[in-house]
Amino acid sequence: MAPRLDFSDWWAKDTRKGTPVVVKMENPNYSVVEIQGPDSAFRPVEKSRGKNAKQVTWVLLLKAHRAVGCLTWFATVFWSLLGAIKKRLSFTHPLGSERLGRDRWLFTAIKLFLALSLLILGFEIIAYFRGWHYFESPSLHIPTSTLEIQSLLHLVYVGWLGLRADYIAPPIKALSKFCIVLFLIQSVDRLILCLGCFWIKYKKIKPRFDEEPFRNDDAEGCGYVYPMVLVQIPMCNEREVYEQSISAVCQLDWPKDRILVQVLDDSNDESIQQLIKAEVAKWSQKGVNIIYRHRLVRTGYKAGNLKSAMSCDYVEAYEFVAIFDADFQPNPDFLKLTVPHFKDNPELGLVQARWTFVNKDENLLTRLQNINLCFHFEVEQQVSGVFLNFFGFNGTAGVWRIKALEESGGWLERTTVEDMDIAVRAHLHGWKFIYLNDVKVLCEVPESYEAYKKQQHRWHSGPMQLFRLCLGAILTSKKANLILLFFLLRKLILPFYSFTLFCIILPLTMFVPEAELPVWVICYIPVFMSFLNLLPSPKSFPFIVPYLLFENTMSVTKFNAMVSGLFQLGSSYEWIVTKKAGRSSESDLLSITEKETPSKRSQLLRGVSDSELLELNQLEEQKQAVAKKPVKKINKIYHKELALAFLLLTAAVRSLLAAQGVHFYFLMFQGVTFLLVGLDLIGEQMS
What is its main location (predicted)? Predict the structure, then answer.
C-alpha cells in the first residue's frame, strides 16, 4: 500500500499567520463559525458548536418530553400497584390470612431479621448524611484515634464498622461460599441433564415395542390376547373434575372383558358421593365394567385409598394397574401405547406417561408452572429414564406391574409422597422404569397461589420424610449413590441454597459490604440456568425474568417444607387435596356435547327404574344449581412473603447508598415480586 503523505499538521504549525477572521451573519438560522488558519475549513466542525439557540431549545424540549413520559409510566405502574394492593386488602377476609401454626419459627426469624435491618438502615442513613461513607469514598479512612472522633454517635458507628469487619463478615463469607459451591454443583447437574436431553433428541432415542405385541397365532378368534388391566381413579371431594376423568377412562380402547375401572371415592360430602355414584351408574349402563368404592374409615389419604382397593379379592386376576388422578383425561389409546412395553420385559415395573396441561395459559401463575413441569418431564424424567432406568413415580398417568407393587411392599401410609415412596422401594428391589415422553395425558395445574403453595409444600416435605425413613435401606443397597444424588441434589440442596443465598445472604451483604456477593452469582448464572429451564417450552421465553423472580419467591415455601419434613414438624404430615377448576380442552367439550344429545340420553335411561330416574333427575338439578351458584373467593395474606418483601426492599434502599446498580435492581424487583405474592396478586384473581 502506498504511504500516506499528510503534511497538514506540519503546514498548519509553521505557516499559521495573520489575524483570525470572524464571520457574523444577521440571519439567526446560520451558525457562527470562527476560522483559524488556512486549513480550518477542511477540519471537522464540532457538532455542539454548530447548534443555534432554536435547535438547543428543541433538543431540550424533546428530552424533557421523554423524561416526563418515563416518569408518567413509572407513576402509572406505581399507582396501579397501589390500587391493586388496596383492592386486595379491602377484599381480604379477616380469616383470610395464612395460618402459620408450627411453621411460625421461620416467620419469627424473618421478622427479627427485618427489624434489625431497619435499625441498621436508619443508622447507615444518618452516617451517610454526616459524611461517614468510608467504603464509598476511598479518600476517607476509618478513624483510628480518639482525636478523629467527632461525637458519641460517630464513636458508635466506628465501633459498628469494626464489629462488622472482624466478627460478622467472616461467618457470612463462609456461609456464602458454601452456598455458592452448592449452587455451582446444582447448576452443573442441570447442565448435564440438558446435554443428556439434547443427546436423546439427536439420536432419537425412545422406548419402542413390536407393532402387534398382543398377537397370538395360537389363540382362537381374532388371534389377539390382551392382558388384564385394572384402572384406578382415586378422588376426594372432586366436584369439578370427577365427570370428565371418569368419562375419559371409560372410553379407553381396550377389550371390555379385559379391563375393570375402580372409582375410589374418599369424599366426605354426601352430595358429591351421590353425583359420582350417578356418573358410575351411567357408564355401567353403557356396558363399561366399572365399580364404585367408598371407604368408611378414611385413613392414610391417597395411599390408604389405593391400599384398600388393592386388597380386593378380584385384583388377583389382573396383571397391571393404571392410575389416574381425578383431573386427568387419558386419550383412548393410552393403554395400547403403554402396556405393550411390559411384554418380553420381565424386569420392567413401571411405565410413566407425560403430563400436559389444559389450563397452562390461564394466567401468569399457570404459565410459570408450565415452565417448571415441562423441564421436569422432558429433561429430568426423560434423561433419568433413558440413562438410569429410575425416576420418581408421578402418582398418576402411569401403569404398574402389580407384581412389582406387591414385591416392593405395596402402598404405605408413612409419608405424603406415596408415589415416590413406592418408586424408591421398587428400584431398591431391582425393578426398572420406562418414561414415555410422547404419550401425553391432559390434566390441570393449580390456578391460585394458595393451591399451588400447598401442593409445593407437600411435594417438598414428603421427600425429606422419605429420605429420613429410607436412609438405612439406601445406604445398605448397591444403588446408594444413585438415590442419594436423587434426594440430595434435587430435593435438599436446591431449596436450601436458593432460599439461603438469595433471600438471606444477599440482603445481609448490603449491610455488611465486606461480604458482598459477586455479580455473576446473583445475575449471570441464575439467568443462564433460567434459560436452560425454558428450553423445553420455547414459547415461554418472554417470561424468563418473571420466572427467575418467582422461583426465588417460592424458595421460602420449599425451604420451609424441606425443614418440616426433615425434622418431623407438624405441617409435614398435612395433606390437602389440590383445588381443581374443572377445565376441559375444546375437543373434550365438543365430544361431550355430541354425546349428550337428548336421543342418546333417552336410550341410556330406557333400562332405568322410575325411582332411579327420579334420583338421576334430582342429581342433575342439584348439579346445575351448584354450577349457577356464585363462588365467593377469599383473598389470603401470606406473612412470610410480605416480611421478606420488606426485608429485600430495605436492603435495596441500603444498596442505593453504596451505589450498587445490579444489586439494587435485583433486590428491588425481587422485593416487589415477594410483595405481589404476599398480597395474593398472582394467579386466580378476585372476581
Answer: Golgi
